[in-house]
Amino acid sequence: MKRYNVAVVGATGMVGQKMLQVLEEMKFPVDNLYPMASARSAGKTVKFDGRDYTVEELTEHSFDKPIDIALFSAGAGTSKKFAPIAAEHGVIVIDNSSCWRMDENVPLVVPEVNPEDLKDHKNIIANPNCSTIQAVAALKPIYDNYGIGRIIYSTYQAVSGSGVKGYKDLEEGSKGEDNHFYPHQIAYNCLPHIDDFLDSGYTKEEMKMVNETRKILHDDSIGITATTVRVPVYYGHSESINVETKKPFEIEDVKDLFNHTPGCVLRDDPKNNVYPLARDAEGTNDVYVGRIRRDDSAENALNLWCVADNIRKGAAANAVQIAFSLIDQGIL
Ligand code: 25A
Ligand code: L14
Q1: In terms of domains, do 189 and 323 share one?
Q2: Do 56 and 157 sit in the same domain of this protein?
Q3: Per-residue pLDDT reduced to its tens digit, 121-166
Q4: Is 121 a catalytic residue?
Q5: Is 237 a catalytic residue?
Q6: Which alpha helices (H) appear in 147-234, and where do they start and end?
Q7: What does pTM read for this prediction?
């Protein structure tokens, strides 16, 4: 089997560390591994496949060596500057930042949903926002079978979405210390505020869900609105999703769809307290779906609850799955 030279940019961050772990777990055929980060982390070591690797500083010359794929998770500013440099050197970049997602030359891909979009890549591929990835994974079978006219998203997002800084605010806040990163205490609290506010009153995170969902499903006609909320959970985003379909459905048929949807797991036996939970999703790469029930307030409408590990399926695992899909489709 062919093996590939892989760079991980942002290798010391929360997502970068998980990328290394998932590459190892999924046995991605790595030949040489190049962990990269800022000057702050250069010289530190990271572990991969039982070996220590020294982190190198990311510079304009980092991609002069033969690298096949680079998984980027070092923030939008770093991606904006360095992804084009890597791409010019023939490296296929799978970028986890928000920087390239809505660029029309950049495929935005969840492998279970729109793998065919990878064929049009121009060396930069975007990993969608974590909340969007799990939502579209759950919505795809509904979209394919019944069409979708409108979506209302309400999210309950873990602090690990903000990296180490968010994690520390919850950990320290739980012990009574002041918040350093979030504008308010996150321990014992819910903040209806993720990413920056826009003039419209929505946050950037909410608009990512709106715009990225339409791009991934290739359907700008879907009406979508979102409220994204930070909750005191370490790992795993939970989402309430209200969907209006175009065609009528039987609710049991909708539930059954998730028994045949790769990447999704049905957890829907509420009388026995079975429904998707962040604590169960943590450490797994699947999207859990449950609480599927008819919404009688509109003609063809339903509610569901959807949970996934935001650092795995929401970031690192989806990126590695994109890399595998490139190989499977003969693109890499
Ligand atoms: O802009 P975006 O797209 O919205 O993304 C912003 C951030 O969100 C996280 C990710 O943070 C990203 O940087 N993120 C993005 N998508 C996510 C998702 N789907 C997501 N989080 C969850 N789910 P992160 O903490 O996971 O990763 C940061 C990594 O990026 C490296 N990095 C930063 N700037 C870089 C760079 N690498 C190369 N060139 C640059 N210019 C960063 O490495 C880390 O690996 P580092 O060396 O900067 O930091 C190593 C450690 O140092 C600590 N630290 C961070 N900032 C400071 C600091 N220490 C002191 N002072 C600081 N200012 C951290 O603990 C870090 O672990
Ligand atoms: O756009 O803080 O990928 O939970 C993902 C994590 C934005 C912020 C992105 C969070 C980021 C989000």
Answers
A1: no
A2: no
A3: 999 999 999 999 999 999 999 999 999 999 999 999 999 999 999 9
A4: no
A5: yes
A6: 164-174, 204-217
A7: 0.94
